[in-house]
Batch of 2 targets.
Target 1
Amino acid sequence: MAILADMFGAGIDTSTVTVEWALAEILVHPHILQKAQDELEAIVGSTRLVRESDIPDLPYLTAIVKETMRLHPVLPLLVPHTTMQDCQVSGYDITRTTQAYVNVSAIGRDPTVWDDPLLFLPERFLASDIDVRGQHFELLPFGSGRRACPGLALGLSNVHLMLANLLNAFKWENLAEVDLSEKFGIVMSLANPLVAKATLKVPTHVIDGKDSA
């Protein structure tokens, strides 16, 4: 029970923080918001909620999620790792059982890997096959290999569906200047919570779960 509680707790916290980062960046860049909502209108429309089966047909939304996880990984150092045997990395001798941290925040902002790494540019992923599932070391929000996050599939599904439905069902308006300052910790969240106005733009019955499709 304790292990399952930890897994669900970690999945909920990290997913909501990721969605908040995505919304914050989108509100700072209105053209991104418009482009994402245009895509959702074309694929999903206003008569139903976004479903998991819609996600493969929403490449720009997927690019937004990838860019959010690159620039604002919620676990900037992942979980602690331990070396299983003596090894050498970049000329340094690393002994067995050494605790190691992978700084995915620094990797995601490395100018030798990414063009304009501090800019929020979802378009960089539209013509790229880089994924977040641990096969591309430029982007490792879930880690990789046997120590990758066991909730990867659940987390991706949660983030895509929550963000897609928030963007498709509501109009968004800033109530104050968006502060993108980071609160660094085990989970890296916004230093100040996002404050924005959401106005329903789909029929009420859609939100009630009585969609027509």
Target 2
Amino acid sequence: MGRNWFCVLALALAAPAAAQPARVGDFQRSVDIGKVGKTGAAVRDAAGTYRITGGGANIWGSEDAFRYLSTVRSGDLHIEADVAFLGAGKDPHRKAGLMIRQNLTPGSPYADVMLHGDGLVSLQYREVQDGPTHEIRSNATGAKRLRLEREGAYVFFSVAGADGVLRHAGGNTPIGFAGPYHVGLAVSAHDDAVTETATFANVALRVPTLAHVPDTGYPAAVESTLEVMDVTGAESRRVVRHFDGKIEAPNWTRDGQWLIYNSKGLLYRIPPAGGTPDAIETGPQRKNNNDHGISPDGRWLAISDQSQADDHSRIYVLPIGGSKTPRLVAGHASTPSYWHGWSPDGRTIAYTATRPETNDFDIYAKDLAGGAERRLSTAPGLDDGPEYSPDGRHIYFNSARSGAMQIWRIGADGSDPEQVTRDPAWRDWFPHFSPDGKWIVFISFGLDVALGDHPPNRDVMLRIMPADGSARPRVLTRLFGGQGTINVPSWSPDGKQIAFVSYRLVR
């Protein structure tokens, strides 16, 4: 084996200098990646504009085919350029954009921001060698300038329209680039029988200046992105709207027309396709937190509000369109209550609360018609996030009772506790059922988070598993998030998508 290794090394060292890719402008090499039917090319004119012609079937799936003009860098980096196609093109899915790539194999881990022939702009990424490609679609239109941003373990992107001002497009994902990586400009024809050409003007590679954030928890200033994600197989993410401040906890209305979220104590609604948010009237309740949700018939909204002088969260119900007089339905004079679930028949709510006679947060239920609340969980350790199964037989919740934060379930009357997730490497919170009852989505924190905490601004995952436990949880997506990401039920009525919030530190 050693002899063969020396032969390979000798051949590599003997390769003639002429075989090395030629430098183009500020980039070290211009090469075709993967299998391309037509050879690409790259040149730079006297004004500094790069013109790249590329073939290849696509930048997607588990292997790519495109023309790449790149150089080697390491650490944090922003790359930006004015990007435009030349000619009408053959395929509306042709791509031109900016890319960071671990290596030059077709299946390399990568992240890019791509302008498509039909105007779509998206952040694409492959997390592992030869793995699948994922996507975060922006809501930007008329893009003229793009920027791909690597900051620590995460990649972000920005887009400029006709005014030329780059604005954060929202969404993020961690990519573990190891050591030096390739960065540059890429073009793929999306049809291996042809080539497509794009120009890249005013190209800039910069190391960003990032202010130190001493406390990335609740005091940290953040930007927020409201996103929806397909969970039926494509598992692509789409930006609904990017916000300069903090928003939390989207609900999807039963008719599919709105997403409802909270921000700075108020509730807002916005169409899932994007647009301008509208405030929802909640009367004197103006310190709403991120524990709110919609009745099964879609007519009512439950809120958890802390407007009273003692700052304890209490639960109110109001019409879905808003009201100046929400009705108090659950609360206590000296301890907080946080709504999380609604029984399928609409008659009962489930919530987490602590009471003077207990030291833990437990699961409670109360009939909206009146009567005393019922304590359903009594085991030592925090219980939170109760949600009824669609058949009404069980309440699922997250619990620390085993010494690891996991998903559990009990009967609707509190009987027969049963553990659902069992991976000690993750702290699982907030189980949410698909409308047909077949799937559960939840958020998973790492062991860097305290057992009973679900803080903001952490590396988290959204995971999904069959409700019947027939398969282990699998990762839907990784993101920078946590508290506020998916605290409440957020499935679309057709069961094909979920809504959530990702975050970015203001630095």
